[in-house]
Amino acid sequence: MPNLARVIARGISGKMRTISAPNCPKIYSIFETSTPPEENGITGFIVRGTTANTGMLRTEPLWSLLSNSGVTVGMANVPATFPVKPVNGYMISGMLTRGKNCEDGLLCSPKLSEVQGGDAVYPPTMVAELESNVGDFLIDCARMPAAKDFLGHEVAAVYEWLARVSATRDQQRKLFDYLLTNHPTDFTFLVQSCEDRVGHWLYPIQPYNVGYNPKLHTIQVNAFPDQYRALDKVLGTILKHVDENTNLFIISDHGIKPLRERESHDAHKDHAGTTPIIAKHDFEDGDEVPGVFVAMGPGIKKGARIMGLPMSIFDIAPTILHIYSTPVPTRMRGRVLTEIFEDTKGANVVSVR
Ligand SMILES: [Zn+2]
User: Fold this and answer.
1) Residues 208-237: pLDDT tens digits?
2) Domain ranges, residue 136
3) Is 333 part of any domain?
4) How far is the CA of 323 from the centre of ligand 1 (A)?
5) Is residue 306, in this structure, part of any structural domain at all?
6) SS3 assignment for 238-254
C-alpha cells in the first residue's frame, strides 16, 4: 500500500479506540456528534424497527456545525446519511440508502437512478450533473450473497460478487475524483466500505479457523488483501488533490478478525443476513478490534506514532472542529487530539523516523 505508507511516513498514526459492538451507522454517528448512541439517536442498523436514517439524529453533527460556521462541506458515501440533509456544499449518501428491491435500505447498493424513499444527493440539481459526468453509479458496497444463493456454485458466486465490489469501488473512485476536481470544499468526507463486506465473508482463514469451508475459502485467498490494495489506489486518487495546505485524516470505524467460536447467523444479522460469516468486529466478550487513525498536514507531527489507545472515535469531531477554529460544543464527549500537532507534547507519541 504505497500511498498509505507515504501518508504514514509524513504524518502521525496509531490505533483508535472504538466502542463495543461497533457497526458503521453507530460509529459514524459518534464520529460526527461525539456523543454516545443513546444520546445521538443512532444505536445501530435498525432503530426501534426502522432502518437508521438522518431523521433520527438528535444531536447536531459535524457537517451541520461546520456548515453553520461558514465552512464549505462535501460528503460522499458516508454511512447513515440518507436521506441527505442540506449542507453548505454537497452531500451524497452511502450505506443504508433505500432503493428499488431494497426498501429496507440494508446494504443493498442501489444505483443512483434506483434510489427510493428520500434524496441521495444534495442539492437535488446535482443528480443530473453526476449522471452525465460520473454515470449511474452504485451507492455503497452490496451485502454478501446468502448461503442458498451460492451453495453448489461457489466459484462463480465469489467471482461475480467480487466483480461487483470492484465495479462499485471504480465508480466511487471516479465520483471522488470528479467531486474533488469540480466541487472542492473546505471540509470533505469520503468513505469506502467494501473492505468490511469482503472481510466478513472472505477473510483469508486457515483450516483450523472457525467456519472454514474449503469449497469457499480456497477460491480467492487474496480477496481480502486485494481490497486494501484497491483502497490504496483510491487513496492515490485522493492524494492528487491534497496540497501542502491540506490536512488529511484516514480513519476506520473498527477493525475485523476471525471468529473464535461458532455462532448462529442471527448473531450478525444486520450485516450478513443468511451469509455464513467468518470474521467480525463485534465480540461479545468486549474484545477490542480497534480502528485506524492516520493524520497528515501542516502543523501535524511528521514520522510519529501514537502508542497504546489514547485516541477514541469520540475525539474526531472535536479535533476537526478545532482545525476549522469552530467552537466545540460542551455536549461533545471527546477531546481535541492536541498531541497530533507539532507544537504540543504527548506522552504516548514516539518518533518512527
Ligand atoms: Zn462489518
Assistant:
1) 999 899 999 999 999 999 999 999 999 999
2) 41-288
3) no
4) 30
5) no
6) HHCCCCCCCCEEEECCC
